[in-house]
Amino acid sequence: MVQPLRRLALLAAGLAAALATPAQAAQGAPAAHAAPARASTPNEQARFLAGLDVPADSPLAALAARPEWKDHVAELQKDWPTLGARLDKEGEWQATELAPRIKRDAKVIYLFGGPDAANVVRLFPDAPAYLLAGLEPVGSLQPPETMKPEEVQAALKALSFALRTTIPSSFFRTSEMGKDLQGRGIRGVLPVLYLFLARSGAEVLDSRRFEVDAAGVAHDRGPAEAYGAGVPGVRVTFRFPGRAAQELSYVRIDLGDEALAKTPGFFTWLGGWGPANGFLKAASFILHDNHFSKPRAFLLRTCGAILQEDSGIPFNRFGKAWDFTCFGKYTTPRKPFQRAYQADLDKACSEQPARPLPFVIGYRHAEDSNLLLAVKRPGASAADAMAAPGPAARPAAPKRKAGAEEKPAEKGDKADEAKPAAPVEAAAPTTTEAPSSTETEAPTTTPAATPTQPSSAP
């Protein structure tokens, strides 16, 4: 009888343990191993980088309570109100002036845009997908909670420093971005995209790395998989409240004609985005140069509409298939771009009714910011989209009236916003440490004899 009774006692004990409440089970029971903490979500990471509050139960909550994060928030807040006000004006303008004139739900191609998610999302809010291209490395974003506090502090400082001329001005300086965002863990364009999307009010859902091969096929790349010889990129999925999810892709590519010969699949792949809306801003007038004839021809051939300020495609390169609408006031470009004055653009815009532009854009002041909207007529051929081949004209600019160059920006604009950038240096990214295999990207170079590729920004 002893053995059956012992078995019955063990069974009863097991049943009692199974029915016990958590509090009862904890009394007198050996401590169990705590469940591993969850990883931070992409949206929590984006909000953390953007200096926005994270949930109290987030793995990043402890880091957000540290003084270095609060310093990061204070640094961003110095200039973000200026950018936010400008983006609000852009949003109001696009709703009344831009949206009625274009196919609102077309994809958007923003060559030379760098990490400038803020402007393109605000000006084209209904696009299902955006493509940004620049010379800055794609980068990576390690969950901050897995990094040492001093590593997070260094990364936040580098991010704030990299944006020192970006948030208050209207363009990125490629050489600065390449040098500043070369740390480990939080590096390159990806964290900047997260920051701008979160600050714009979006929820970041996911990001995936990809690579476009020589045949024009995009292949997903895992988090630990190195990029090969193709065009490296990252695709970020995000959502605004009450709207469907959208995608923003960034690719690192040299868009000079000579360099594009080494990445023949890029425009094959991107051609599948058409007919798209094109956007060009703070492009250093590089498409006026025939060393960049391929991206110029691609945009004219592929886009159904192109919105640009005067540093984009030369007016004389548009063929007879386009209708034009001018906004703001076109005048001689500011230093150092005076030689890019376009008499034909000046004449075309002066013959149209005045349409104000309520925000600063590109290398301009408030009084001479301008945008040109070119809309391709339905059924137009590729031949009609482009003017006959020939050298891009660069006539000498007429003299600006005395004092015009020194006129200050409008009230509320930062001084840097009114100053044009010198041509940027497309230097290869440098770092004191070799990048990890998950961060490796094929280097891009620009021939020394050709103009260097810019990147835009808020």
Explain the layout of strands and helices.
Blueprint: H1 2-19, H2 22-26, H3 42-49, H4 61-64, H5 67-98, E1 108-110, H6 117-123, E2 129-134, E3 140-141, H7 149-162, H8 174-180, E4 186-187, H9 189-199, E5 203-212, E6 218-221, E7 231-239, E8 246-252, H10 257-260, H11 265-270, E9 276-280, H12 293-302, E10 303-308, E11 322-328, H13 343-350, E12 370-376, H14 382-385
Parallel strand pairs: 1-2, 1-9, 2-8, 9-10
Antiparallel strand pairs: 3-4, 5-6, 5-7, 7-8, 10-12, 11-12
Helix pairs in contact: 3-9, 5-6, 5-7, 7-8
Short structural description:
With 458 residues, this protein is an alpha/beta fold. It has helices at residues 2-19, 22-26, 42-49, 61-64, 67-98, 117-123, 149-162, 174-180, 189-199, 257-260, 265-270, 293-302, 343-350, 382-385; strands at residues 108-110, 129-134, 140-141, 186-187, 203-212, 218-221, 231-239, 246-252, 276-280, 303-308, 322-328, 370-376.
Key features of this structure:
single chain; 458 residues; alpha/beta; 10-stranded mixed β-sheet; two-stranded antiparallel sheet; 12 strands
Can you describe what's shown?
- Helix 5 packs parallel to helix 6.
- This protein has 458 residues and is an alpha/beta fold.
- The protein has helices at residues 2-19, 22-26, 42-49, 61-64, 67-98, 117-123, 149-162, 174-180, 189-199, 257-260, 265-270, 293-302, 343-350, 382-385; strands at residues 108-110, 129-134, 140-141, 186-187, 203-212, 218-221, 231-239, 246-252, 276-280, 303-308, 322-328, 370-376.
- It contains 14 helices and 12 strands.
